[in-house]
Structure formats: structure tokens, C-alpha cells
Amino acid sequence: MNIERHEYDVVVIGAGGAGLRAAIEARQQGKRTAIVCKSLFGKAHTVMAEGGAAAAMGNVNSDDNWMVHFRDTMRGGKFLNNWRMAELHAKEAPDRVWELEAWGALFDRTKDGKISQRNFGGHEYPRLAHVGDRTGLEMIRTLQQRVVALQQEDHEQHGDYEAYIKVFQECTVTRLLKDGDRISGAFGYWRETGSFVLFDAPAVVLATGGIGKSYVVTSNSWEYTGDGHALALLAGANLINMEFIQFHPTGMVWPPSVRGILVTESVRGDGGVLRNSEGERFMFKYIPEVFKDKYATTEEEGDRWYTDQANNRRPPELLPRDEVARAINAEVKAGRGSPQGGVYLDVSTRLPAEEIKRRLPSMHHQFKELADVDITAEPMQVGPTCHYIMGGVEVDADTGGASVPGLFAAGEVSGGMHGSNRLGGNSLSDLLVFGRRAGAGAAAYVDALPARPKVAQEQVDAARTEALAPLERSSGENPYEVHHELQRTMNELAGIIRKAEELTEALEVVEKLKERVQLVGAGGSRIYNPGWHLALDLRNMVLVSECVAKAALMREESRGGHTRDDHPGMRPEWRRKLLVCSTEDGGSITVEEQEQPAMRDDLITLFDRDELSKYLTDDEMDEFDRIAK
Ligand code: FAD
Fold first, then answer.
1. Residue 497, H or E segment
2. Nearest CA to ligand 1 atom 2
3. ipTM
4. Residue ranges, the chain, pLDDT below 70
5. Closest atom of ligand 1 to CA, residue 435
6. What InterPro entries does the database record attribute to this sequence (predicted)?
């Protein structure tokens, strides 16, 4: 059977911030580049990003610089981050934001006309470049505009807008193809017609985002089914840090139909406070030892910080997300929650109504439309929601290259940069910094290739057979039921607070679900058939869920986005251990420990001894003392 076939130098899978920035770079380096995305072009998670992009530009507080940002990022990730990624990110984020502005982005301004920067949890200084609470939309608009500008150049030079960069929207990739150990292409289907499409390409950049749809309560939308994570695994690459999932502290809890939808951290950054059903501003009770000297211990000091940051410590509502999410969880469990099982987030008593509407227009609109709550006059009810996965494809920090030659990854699908917990705002900047690097890495890889890898027909046939299988079992298992069971299992047994028995039970259920996925059937034809699409996505969701639960069971400590009820507290001997997930054949996931290289001397000496002693082992501290002498 003939399959539609295209030949490119670089295929970028995903059209969010990471994918677009990677594609722009690959095209700028002269590579014929395809952008493939399963949703409509322009509809990616990046569009939903509200708060902003973190970059130490020092526009609002001139004390900010890359070293402060690097320290905040490492602290937020509880020192488990790939420090080289954190370094590159902190150093390059300002240039990437300025570059966006040069391409037409219109950021909010300070009074003296610079790009304005707002406060966010875990960032020592105001650092998030933003456009109201619609920053992601502006980022995507600008990157798309840049793609169009490049296409116009190509039209002038080659008479064809799509000569060097072409978008394939509503096209889902289901398999990566290999020639020996190297990438040779990608196989997918058009969502609308169900017909298949083959990309011949020596380099593939994964930029597919996260895995949130494996959980019931999530801020993520339908595309987040862990496709890139699974595609990488099935192609022989490793995933790291899969046990670390960020439960954003503030998702909507009511009404049920909107449960999980994000309430941006900007609400707290702009003065919003959290209270329990007794009216107590409870976060003061939950400042952990490692952050004690950095956060206000009284409401008065916390409030003063909004107008005088030099002489006061920040309020504990702005602790890193994992801390706030756990605190909310504990308050609700202790019976001090709101009627619908969350806590109260109040900005109405903190800012004038007009100011709220100006600074948080989307939040105002979201609550009014979806919950009939006017946030200028009453508090919101909020609770934790599965938001972001820190884990992903293990990549080389400088090039985004995975262990499989020709495979690159950037953005949320890659792992390492954020360690055990991501700071708000560090994703948008991550997309730009590492999207650019992955695009450049892929281009350099293609330049250095002695010969173009070839697509093997057997692999295309196998991918086609695999994709058609659910349609041939039209009376098989219902994909929606299997999906729901997976979501419920992950939420209840591998969620925000974990313990060994529950994780073991989760793995038993996932194992059974894996078998059921093999029996899932979809009625109807290949033409726009969401049941069939879900049946195909389920393979990916069960694979990544197995990684999450297995790694979570293995890590016997609590750190960042991984909290073990039966192993509370961080254990220094676990800090440098990465848990690496892989699979031989898509069957079972193997998880192995791998030691993370020690931080470079010039970077580790950016930290105080006292702070490091809270995270490092005694041996590591001895080494630090030797270096610091
Ligand atoms: P995405 O932007 O999600 O793009 C993924 C792309 O991959 C999509 O185009 C999708 O169609 C495509 N895709 C997926 N699977 C396939 C497949 N199999 N075949 C083809 N295409 C595929 N971060 C911040 O730094 N600041 C914020 O203020 C902020 N606010 C947020 C608000 C919300 C509501 C959410 C959900 C997240 C927020 N984040 C924020 C996180 C941040 O938005 C995401 O981590 C980031 O946008 C991910 O970008 P990405 O490029 O990796 O993926």
C-alpha cells in the first residue's frame, strides 16, 4: 500500500514553544524542517501558560543576575537538577526573551519602558517577563510569526513558501523509525482522514510536552498523553526523573467539570493569600527548615515585602510549588478545607477590583465564566492539580541529543533541567533556551552524517499494523474505560502523597491495564475517530505511568515532586541518584540507578556552606571544603 511520504533533514514533533523554537533554529541553520503537531497549529500547552518566562534581566531589581537564577533553580529542584542545564538556562534565558521581543513580542513594561518582570514562587527577585496573564499566547504568536517570516524569505528565494519549513497540523506521530541504531524517520496518521504519513529524516526533535492525561485531576489538556516520552522509550532512549511530578497547588476545584484547570501562580505573586476554612493564613506553619531564613515568619513582614523587597522576606505563599501543594493537601486532610475540598485563595481583599482585572484578566474571566465567582469580590476555592512532569528524555545539556543518534528532545518532554521540582516561569524560558539548542544540535548532527539513514519497509509495515489493530477489534475493550481506570489509579495510588503499598498496587493495576490496552477496540472508520486516537494514545500513557510508579517506588525519600509518606524527608545519599527508565521491546520497564556527575567547582562555590550542608552528604561536604579553600 502506498503511504504519503515526505523527506526532511529535521522533523520536529510538537509545535509548542520548544518545537517552534527548535524548528526556527534548524531552518536558520539551513535545514529542511518539518513541524508536526497532533493539535491545530497554535494550540499547544504553551498557549495556556499564564504567568511568564523567567529570565534574570534585572529590569525590576538590578541585583538579579544569572547566578541568582541558577541558585534559585537548583534550590527549587532540591539540588537534583542537571546543573549544566540549569547553568545554560540561567545564562541564556535573557537573550532568548530579548530575541522574542526583536521578533515582535510585546511584553508588559516597567515605568521606565523596560520589559516588566513579576514575582513568582522560589524566585528571589521579580523575574518573569510577562504579558498580563497570557504570556504563552504571546510567545506562540511571536514564534509562529517568525516561522511565517522565514517562509516569506524562502518564497522570495525559492518561489515556495514551504521550501524549507512546513507545518503538518493535526498529524499524530505513533512511531520513530531507525536504521540500525540511528533515527531514520517517523510514522504517523492524519487525525482527520486517518490516512498514514511517513517522514524520512535523519534527525527528529521531540517537543511533545507532558503526560498529565494519565491523571484525573490535571491542568493539562487532551494532547498531554506522554507520546514523546513513549516514542523515545520505544526507540531505545532513556527517561530520567520520572518519579517527579509537579502538582500545582492551585487548580480549580469547583464545579466538577472544570476541576484541575489552572489558577495561575501570578495570583499569589500579585498578593493573593491562602486561607483555610477557619480563616487562618496557614502557609506560615509550613515553611520547611531549608527555607526558614528566606521566608517571612509573620503576616506583617510578608505583606511589607510586596512594597519593600530589600528589607523584608517574601511571604510563604510564594514557597516552591511542591511545598504549597503539600500544605494545602495537609489542611484539607485535617478537615480545614473549603466546602468543595480545596482551600481559599483570596486576592479580592488585597487589591482594588480594577487592578485585579488589569493584572489578572484571564483569571477574572475564567472564574466568572466557569464557576460564577467574581474574584474581585470573593475568594476562589483551589486545590492541587497534576501540572507538569520534571522527568523526561535524558539529553545532553548542550545539544539536546538523546542516547539514540539522531534523536533530540526539548521542553517538557526532556528531563534533567528542573531536578525534582520546577520553579514557575522556568518552563517558558526552558523551551526557548533548549528548543534553540536542540534545533542547532539536530542541524549539526545532520551536517556531520556521512550518509543518510534509510527507512526500512518492515518497520513501516509494523507501525501500520500496530496503528490499525484497535480498528480490527471493534468489539474489544472500551478505550475510555481503560483510560478512566488508569487516571483514577495514578491519581489515587501514585499521586501527590505516595507510599510503598499503594505504589505496588498501582503497578499491579498498570500491568493489568497494559494487557487490556492490547485488547482495546475502536468502532467506526479511520475518519476522524477519537475512540481510535485514544486507543493509540493509551499505549503511551500506560508506559509512562509504569515509569512513574516504578521510579516512585524505588526512590525511598521525599524530594520535590515526589513525596513518600513512608519515607519523609530528603536523604542526602539519594540526591545524586538518577533513576533511569528504559525498555528493550516496549514490554516491561527497567529502572536503574545512575550517578549524576558532581557539580563543577565554579558553580558549587556559588552556594553558602550552610545551605549545601542541608542537601549534601558528609563526603560531598568534605569535597566542598577542599574546593572552597
Ligand atoms: P507544548 O506547548 O504542550 O507542545 C506540545 C506539542 O506537541 C503540541 O503541539 C502537541 O500537539 C504536540 N504533540 C504531542 N504529541 C504528539 C504526537 N504524538 N504527534 C505529533 N504532535 C504531538 N510554564 C511557565 O514557565 N510559565 C507559566 O506561566 C506557565 N503557565 C502554565 C499554565 C498552564 C495552564 C499549563 C498547563 C502550563 C503552564 N506552564 C507554564 C507550563 C508550560 O506551559 C509547559 O510546560 C510548556 O508550555 C510545554 O511546552 P512544550 O513546547 O514542551 O510543549
1. strand 497-498
2. 16
3. 0.99
4. 1
5. 51
6. FAD-dep_OxRdtase_2_FAD-bd, FAD/NAD-bd_sf, Fum_R/Succ_DH_flav-like_C_sf, Fum_Rdtase/Succ_DH_flav-like_C, SdhA/FrdA/AprA, Succ_DH/fumarate_Rdtase_cat_sf
